[in-house]
Design a protein that fits this description.
With 93 residues, this protein is an alpha+beta fold. The strands form 2 sheets. Strands 1-3-2-7 form a 4-stranded mixed beta sheet, covered by helices on one side. A 3-stranded antiparallel beta sheet has the order 4-5-6. The chain is globular. The two termini are 12 Å apart.
Length: 93
């Protein structure tokens, strides 16, 4: 999976633009994504563990290795208020 994704620095995510469409169309994959987000949030808050987030902006697929600090109903929040829309995330691990 990582071959088609480009590594990006967390600080550069704030400069990206995200479409409104979801990258996933399978209901089970969407449920799995929510579970992975909740797990990443727990790891970030309890152990300050980094996690890989696979996502896509308007240009290409990207991966970031970072700590998840918070989650809203629409976004995953990283350090310094950087956000990735949940509907643009493929996988977290």
């Amino acid at each position: 999976m990582t071959k088609e994704f480009t590594i990006i620095d967390k600080e550069d995510i704030a400069l990206l633009k995200f479409p409104i469409t979801d990258v996933l169309d399978d209901v089970d994959e969407i449920k799995t994504r929510i579970s992975e987000i909740n797990r990443a949030l727990s790891l970030g808050n309890l152990e300050h563990s980094k996690i890989k987030i696979f996502f896509e902006d308007i240009e290409s697929k990207k991966i970031v290795d970072t700590t998840v600090w918070g989650v809203t109903d629409k976004n995953v929040i990283l350090k310094q208020g950087v956000m990735i829309p949940i509907h643009r995330i493929y996988k977290l691990f």
